[in-house]
Amino acid sequence: MSRLFIAGAIALMASNVVVASCLPVTGPDAGGVYPNIFEKIEFETLQDCTLSFSENPAIKQLNSRIAGNAELLPLAQRLPLEPLIVVPYQSIGQYGGVLHGTSKATESGTSDLLSVRHVNLVRFSDDLATVVPNVAKSWDWNADFTVLKVTLRQGHKWSDGAPFTAHDIAFWYNNIQMDRNVIEKSKDRFLSAGKPVKVEALDDTTVQFVMNEPAPGYLDNFAQDYAQPFLPKHLLEKFHPTFNKDADKLAQSLGFDNGYALVNFYYGQSDWKDIPTPLLKDKAATVRLVNAGYTAIMPSLESHLVVEDSLERRHLVANPYFFQVDTAGNQLPYINEINEVYIGDENIQTAKLIAGDVDYKSQAVNLPQAPVLLENKDQGNYDVALRPTISQVTFAFNLTDKDLEKRAVFNDVNFRRAMSIAMDRDQINQIAYFGLGTPAQYTAFDADTTPFITDKQKNSWIQFDQKQAGKLLDNAGVVDKNGDGLRDLPSGKKFELSIQYSTQGTPSEVVEIVAKSWSDVGVKTTIKEVTSDEYRNSQSANNLSVVNWMTGRPLVSMASNVETLVPPYGSFFDLRTGMLWSQYQDTNGAEGVAPPATVAEMKKLTDRFVTLKAGTEESNEVGSQIADRVVDDLFIIGTVKAVAPVYRSNALSNFELPKTASYEFYRMYPYLPTQWYLSTETVAKQ
User: Fold this and answer.
1) Which of 204, 53, 200 is nearest to 137 (CA)?
2) Read out DSSP for 33-66?
3) What's the confidence (pLDDT) of residue 573?
């Protein structure tokens, strides 16, 4: 589509010449370049019409609850000139209501509700493979995937009404991600060949990324990443010493030590969106900021904004400047508010689900809870569907354990193989997954949808054979030295394992079966349930000997982000092992422990993998070599690949089930939650 044609269409819109009113379009057969979305000019051209816009009748009242937001601009000035048109799945929705959900804690188990409001430059379409526009309107790669140009929407605004531009993306990268005063260590997935990418705003709506080597998956990563590659420069630059020589003085006048302290107060030194907001971190400080003319929380592009934040719950309201509309011109989202309460106990969470007190839940709803949920669904006016998973429960041993003798045992592949075949995966499948799963080894990639994963890889070291496991443990020097029936460390010291786990990442039934299997083979194993925050903090502090969590990702999300393949094999939110290997690499050998040669060989493979276009013959060949090394090393041990429940209230309309249990794809939100709405009866009750 030519720039001249686009300019003419925009001029026509500005002149208020009405060709015809647009007919609302719903359902899967709306047409267009991409399913369920249109660009404005594409929609109007197809229908030979001019789209008019409407706002939520309650939007002024909702805006008044966003501390520090100014009085609203008219809707025409709040929407971009080129809003993203979303096609509702079933019907044009109705405004209002409160979406009720639960999480484990302020940073734990929040993925469900984060996905409802989350946006990024792009996202995946419902086929979970095609990258489609979102915040970005379009993009172009050069021939060898070393230069990416991203075009934004004209007139797009932050939630406080300030213009959102390409300079906000360049600021996020150059002055936050690459500033050691804010982020101590740059994330590998945002680098190219281990070095910074050149990110430059060419004009207000065009940002350019120049790579150091081909990186065909770089943009695709933003379709599934929780990190949003933009920050409100108009706010943060006031406190950033690079932009304001008086930043420290200004910050001190507001009660902060220096400018960076105030930048971090807003930003939180993390791209994870559900860290405590300023409202929770320091309420008095937010009052000072609002009184001085600033917003209480950092402006956002998301569909809903936090207005209350406590240790018990988080409450959000609709963003009055959100950039999406439906095909009738109604600004999205339809749902006015989100109420997120924190429930750490699985039984209490299940009780709330049974009572129908929740509108949507997928994360941390484990399959063992499905029967009681299904039994009570009519009474609670909800539905439960079982969807295939991509990840599976995995276990790993701490390869840099603080106990040096345990560390040596864990680094013996005979031990890891023994503990893998000592697991009774069929029992796990029958008891924890009702026979609906398939025993499978961890291969790093989703074995069901990745073309190069072989049956040999999926079935490697998964046979239940405790006799053979015993022989392998003997080879590892883990034998019963005192005749008490339990195996000891090679020195003769007592050898016991303790599995700490959180039901957010691992069902209790799985842990119980694994612990019994290992105890039966002579390695005494006990279990202890903890909160997800406790688990993650202990894991990151290198305090656990056995780690466990759901692990595994689709090929499409591995093409540029290979952090689960190199030490420490995941982020703070994932299973992690080899923490001291990672430290050694980060400090060029000054600290930590040198990893074995296989780690360097894997790094060579992953460095090559990210330069190749996913799905090509060469990419598949390297991917297969990666999977071979994963199953040979067995640093991470798989269990059973199964299904997981997705829960939703019957009052939640325009809801389409995702192809998989939504946890793996939640940041891509293929189910378009901004067009969800609550039925009239539900809204009336609230």
Assistant:
1) 204
2) SBTTEEEHHHHHHHHT-B---B--TTHHHHHTTS
3) 86
Consecutive H or E run containing 377: helix 377-380
Q: What is the distance between the alpha carbons of residues 100 and 357, in angstroms, rounded to a whole number? A: 7
pLDDT in tens, 184-222: 888 889 999 999 999 999 999 999 999 999 999 999 999
Closest Cα partner for 113 from 286, 356, 305? 305
The Cα 669–Cα 657 span in angstroms is 11
- Dihedral (Cα; 577, 583, 586, 589), 10-degree rounding: -130
Residue 314, SS3? strand
Question: What is the distance between the alpha carbons of residues 598 and 69, in angstroms, rounded to a whole number?
Answer: 54
CA distance 296 to 72: 17
Residue 353 DSSP SS3 = helix
Structure tokens at 149: 């140009």
| ∠ CA 71-246-284, rounded to 5° | 50
Mean pLDDT of the chain: 93
Confidence of residue 274 (pLDDT cuts 50, 70, 90): confident
User: What are the start-end ranges of the H helices in 531-643?
Assistant: 532-540, 555-558, 579-586, 597-609, 617-633
pLDDT digit string (tens) for 134-171?
999 999 999 999 999 999 999 999 999 999 999 999 99
pLDDT in tens, 359-392: 999 988 989 999 999 999 999 999 999 998 889 9
β-pairing, 337-342 with 98-103? parallel
Question: Could you tell me where the beta strands, DSSP code E, fall in 343-446?
Answer: 360-361, 382-388, 392-397, 438-439
Are 537 and 493 contacting, i.e. CB atoms less than 8 angstroms apart?
A: no
User: Count of residues for the chain?
Assistant: 686
pTM to 2 decimal places: 0.90
Tell me how far apart the alpha carbons of residues 204 and 227 are, in angstroms, rounded to a whole number.
21
| E-assigned strand segments in 189-274 | 191-192, 195-196, 198-203, 206-210
CA 442 to chain centre: 20
